[in-house]
User: What shape does this take?
Amino acid sequence: MDARVECAVQQRQVLFLCVFLGMSWAAEEPLEYFVEEEAERGTFLANLAHDLGLGMEELSAREPRVISDQKIGFLLLDPLTGDLSLNEKLDREELCGPKEPCVLPFQLLMGKPFEVFRAKLWVRDINDHSPVFLDREIPLKISESTTPGAAFLLQSAQDSDVGTNNVRNYTISPNAYFHINVHNGAEGIIYPELALDRPLDREEVPELSLILTALDGGSPPRSGTTLVRILVLDTNDNAPEFVQPLYKVQLCEDSPVGSLAVTVSAKDLDTGSNGEIVYAFFYATERILKTFQINPTSGSVYLKAELDYEVIQTYTLTIQAKDGGGLSGKCTVVVQVTDINDNPPELLMSSLTSPIKENSLETVVAVFRIRDRDSGNNAKTVCSIQDDLPFLLKPSVENYYTLVTDSPLDREERAEYIITITVTDMGTPRLKTEHNITVLVSDVNDNAPAFTQTSYTLWVRENNSPALHIGSVSATDPDAGANAQNYTINLNSFFHIKISGSDEGIIYPELVLDRALDREKQQEFSLTLTALDGGLPPRSGATNIHIVILDVNDNAPQFSQAIYETQAPENSPVGSFIAKVSAGDADSGINADISYSFFDASEDILTTFHINPFSGEIILRLLLDYELQRLVVLVRDNGEPPLSASVTLHVLLVDGFSQPYLPPPEAEAAAAAPADPLTVYLVVALASVSSLFLFSVLVFVAVRLCRRAGAASAGRCAVPEGHFPGHLLDVSGTGTLSQSYQYEVCLTGGAGTNDTFQTASHYPIHLQYFLYLRRHTCMS
Assistant: This one.
């Protein structure tokens, strides 16, 4: 209840403010301009800049507009020069009818700042219509006993023009009996009256036909004629007389068609046909004849059409009572139409601004005017909008209102407002009008793009094909249009961003690979993806993308050496460690899990040696009985499909510390390759010369040694016991003897002393082998 009381108080305050502003505005004198009707389109009326005391540039900057209640735009304003001219020809009779003067009110609306100036355009009448009689013939019955000086009212002519251009005089064709008198009637209408100059004699002149001419006051004057047919009657000395000469009636504008308006009454003292009265409208305009009808016998006047207070407020009827003898009398009936609240208020929109930028302070959205065609309290109005909107109505002068923003708008919160302007009048019952306007909120770049996650992790297999789609991320930006986002990444030669959109208009960046990846070279990437919108200034957001490269089994295991060589003593026990091979795989995970086995091994090898599938260590299962064993070790990974590699291991059975010659891998490879004939000849010749030289040296040394041995008296050889010292055998898996070792030889034929030689491992193999043989010879 309190809310309704408060709302009523607020509405009453707005109403009082409007009335106060309208009264203060009405005190100012409006601008007045004059133009003749039918003036050509483009006729110059005035310069508003001059009349308002404004410069042309100032007038143009204030965005002037001409507003009128008329449904047609009859005025044209040039905002650059301030010239006001006609936009079309004006027909005063169409615009104002019989009303004089014909004044068309309009308003000059200034936008910056808001200001309203009243103005009036006076349309002057020109003589463009001729007087017209409604009837082409006027019958008139006059008794022969009528005395000279008697007067008879005649039908007046109608002229759509007004003022001096209306009917100003009547004339009658020359005759011996009558002349015309002109009288001013109600509402400035001139009535013709036929006056009798001398007595009539029916036997002499039973009928007269006269031409009645109506003349207007134009220059040149226009005229209209009708025929007055006079029938001379026998004596009838009493004319009808109305009970009252004036009747005043009030009718509501909603009175139904056919309802009784008034009943007039007249009396005639004559009898017979001279006392029978017939009622009829006298000088009835076309509008009256369409609106009312009269019973010729009873004098009752009825509504023939609906009344409209907003069109005509007063009707003046002249009713004539005529008896059978041709005498008549008249009375006047004034019908006053009273207003009812039958017109809802009207909202006339002058300007509407949409869209409106968000975050703007108090902004004028619309300028409109309220009009109600009713009168009194029925024309008083109250204007309002919804309470839950950030807009405010501000009343101005002459029922103008401005709709402004009450607080800054946020497009991300609400992009569109449908505002219902409700206008209610104060009549009974109250009528209201609702006018909906749609206000769009335009975007301002006040939001930065934001990713749905602060970081992303993507996985991709290595060796992938270029242009592979890796994954998508998304960022949201509440802004729209040019303020939407774009995407960039930090400099990287492996990836680029491809932009795609969805049906909802959301942009998704797709990370696309530019070239194949190799996990063995780089296992992961870290990228920074930036979302940049297109606003001014632009805003941005960033996220981190971690790309993990998944391994593919694309690398075969590799041994650490191309070939392995090792030595094993001939008396090595079962379970002895022989050698260890090692291999690696560049892949990861199960693709890097490797296992060792013998490849294409015979049954003897499988029973003699055992290889650990995980460590690659080779141990003895049986005693060795061959001087040289050739083993092929296969290493295989667990990938899909599995990859493998093989290597050759030479195991040499040795006794002592000698180091037998093992052909290097390069020699074996060279032997396996086809030899060039010239190269073969050179190798054979060089080998022959070297062999001959070696043989000669051996013979020479042997002879000297034998002689020295025979000359020795107590010569003996110091023979070390046992086999090769333990420090001479390398079982570390490298396949060679230790880098330095010692051995002793005894040469006979000298002074009988032992010569001890220390030789480095870099001595040629064939010399080491010779010394070994010599040692055993001395021992024997």
